[in-house]
Amino acid sequence: xxxxxxxxxxxxxxxxxxxxxxxxxxxxxxxxxxxxxxxxxxxxxxxxxxxxxxxxxxxxxxxxxxxxxxxxxxxxxxxxxxxxxxxxxxxxxxxxxxxxxxxxxxxxxxxxxxxxxxxxxxxxxxxxxxxxxxxxxxxxxxxxxxxxxxxxxxxxxxxxxxxxxxxxxxxxxxxxxxxxxxxxxxxxxxxxxxxxxxxxxxxxxxxxxxxxxxxxxxxxxxxxxxxxxxxxxxxxxxxxxxxxxxxxxxxxxxxxxxxxxxxxxxxxxxxxxxxxxxxxxxxxxxxxxxxxxxxxxxxxxxxxxxxxxxxxxxxxxxxxxxxxxxxxxxxxxxxxxxxxxxxxxxxxxxxxxxxxxxxxxxxxxxxxxxxxxxxxxxxxxxxxxxxxxxxxxxxxxxxxxxxxxxxxxxxxxxxxxxxxxxxxxxxxxxxxxxxxxxxx
Amino acid sequence: xxxxxxxxxxxxxxxxxxxxxxxxxxxxxxxxxxxxxxxxxxxxxxxxxxxxxxxxxxxxxxxxxxxxxxxxxxxxxxxxxxxxxxxxxxxxxxxxxxxxxxxxxxxxxxxxxxxxxxxxxxxxxxxxxxxxxxxxxxxxxxxxxxxxxxxxxxxxxxxxxxxxxxxxxxxxxxxxxxxxxxxxxxxxxxxxxxxxxxxxxxxxxxxxxxxxxxxxxxxxxxxxxxxxxxxxxxxxxxxxxxxxxxxxxxxxxxxxxxxxxxxxxxxxxxxxxxxxxxxxxxxxxxxxxxxxxxxxxxxxxxxxxxxxxxxxxxxxxxxxxxxxxxxxxxxxxxxxxxxxxxxxxxxxxxxxxxxxxxxxxxxxxxxxxxxxxxxxxxxxxxxxxxxxxxxxxxxxxxxxxxxxxxxxxxxxxxxxxxxxxxxxxxxxxxxxxxxxxxxx
Lengths: 440, 440
Hints:
The structure is a homodimer of 440-residue chains.
Chain A: E1 7-9, H1 15-18, H2 25-48, H3 53-56, H4 64-76, E2 79-83, H5 90-99, E3 117-121, H6 126-135, E4 141-146, H7 153-170, E5 178-182, H8 190-196, E6 199-202, H9 216-224, H10 229-242, H11 252-267, E7 271-276, H12 284-296, E8 304-307, H13 318-323, E9 328-337, H14 362-379, E10 384-391, H15 394-415, H16 426-437
Parallel strand pairs in A: 2-3, 2-4, 4-5, 5-6, 7-8, 7-9, 9-10
Antiparallel strand pairs in A: 1-10
Helix pairs in contact in A: 2-11, 2-15, 4-9, 5-9, 5-12, 10-15, 11-15, 12-15
């Protein structure tokens, strides 16, 4: 493994670390026997186009139009407001949290290097939406509407409100403040593109929202804010290459997907916790939660993903993790090198009770806490894997996205379900429409 | 029930709604039989002082000093930075999210009515902390350090860094920018109060962090930002009164605690989802998650709390909730009346595919989605309760806090564990210290 790649460590899954609850020789042999069929299924999904996410990291370069429009958008607008929900929002939110400086929207234009502030409207709470509309100058705002089908009720609702405002404020120029990211030919938004000449990017028709971060859905808004999307794609490609072989020892994505499946199916771990020890990676757990839940929660199967934050949730969830039911698999994320100089958080003159902190910086303490929590859970016989980011940058985030996307597909193959559909959300949509049509 | 109180509806727990998985006559009889012992245990905890949270909502008025110091703080400082983690932060974060206008920290001083911006440092991520220290003017910042014991490594570390900065910038006046909220006599912080005349508030010694939001821990910073803390306490008192009787039919807190326990212990629901359909109430699920996990996750027992956001997570988690394992109890929060005028989010001229949205506002859609998701889960035989907030204000939030605090105590009594300790976090603390002392 190259030094500058994500390090993925499964040692605390092993029986010699956590006893009977762990993976022993029997388990590893049994899992290895499942791999060929899962691999074949994955190849079928690639052929059928269901697993098209894999090829987003492929040889094709990113369309130059994305860079051009992103540069124009950054030049012409103060704010980028993304209207999108679920898979149309989470990958971008995760990338923005990871790769933009903290307090981005509170920084000056100069500090943001002329890039726009970013607001991702992934809910329809009326107070938040009203406050945002009062807060921004819509004339100076680019609204990027993301919905493959154009049928997403939340995004459509926001769009109709915004459209009226744009027409009010800008007259015939309303279209200049809109960008659509949608199906290349079908759906409710595409006809508007043609009728009004609205700038647009295409979402590959077979690409599901939760696998779309490396498509224009995530890439275009990220590029507007100055994120290095070439590095994001490059990292994803490196991970795809690293995960090509159907071998659990050498393919970390297959290992993650297969081990999680095994812990759920054979060891009663129906919960999977993602706990980043890094504020930058905080929303990686939200992104993962959608990916895991919506892909695998079917036919009465599927682990429930849980978001946790290190070190914060040591003071909230870790009591349960240590002494509650042994029903969880833990995914730790840690960062070896932070962005700001460590001197800025170095402790001097601590009180005598904390003399051991003298000269230590916050990053060192945070990482010690990660090791300590991992160690404590291991002593309590709870399985965990740990992923180390050499640092949080676009390349490593790209690796992370691809790692868990492949892992999800492989887990889906093991469960014998289709990880690319989401039939369970239809009833709710139907009932919503009925309630609103009846004006109940 | 008075009209302006929280409405708490358990109908979707019943067998006539969700079949065998629900609560039938047998279950309700069995639960009713458990109530007297649980009630007695709760009374014992009140007598011993363990359940002192209950009496925070009692007859005593809030100390006038809190109002005075809060007014001075708001007058003299641009920023309020709270250094605290876990229970020292979550209640405040929840209250601030619920009760301050959206985008609080981005509003002008005038729009904030002269109240300070609020930053709650509840993690030690070095990049966030460095960025914050660069962003604020420490001279214009009041740092409120919250730790009962003063031994919390994260809070202490932040404090030492801040202390050096204050001394650098302010010389002998450093103490004027500090407020401590800590044990009245013991701990690492109290001696500094005495030695340097630092303004301080006392945390009742027996009060655990996760039950402390209605003590100075939550009240003082909330008051600084202009939150009506009298109403918060008043709401809590109303709920305490409403939950006085040991009767599952009339006491919603006892019902929540007892039903959750029963679903976990007898119906294999080891997960409890809190899903607010309101951005203002988003962190209510974080606050609940700490309360539930740290209080009840012991002796191999305890449900795992899961945070979800309505409507957003319909596009992320609901697939799993509908078709995954039937291993969850759902807690929905909804809001009947939002703060901003509904006209601001009213939809006009929707496309023909969405003609049924014409004239409807976002709040109506959001609430329809809540009903739809609740209805869909009921059809899928998944148990849920729904709490309706007439609106999100300090009074109703106070009700909510007390409701779940009592519910947690009662659940603890049913589990036969002590809901007020957290022995499981000690090993991690010990290992952290060892790692740092060895400078590994």
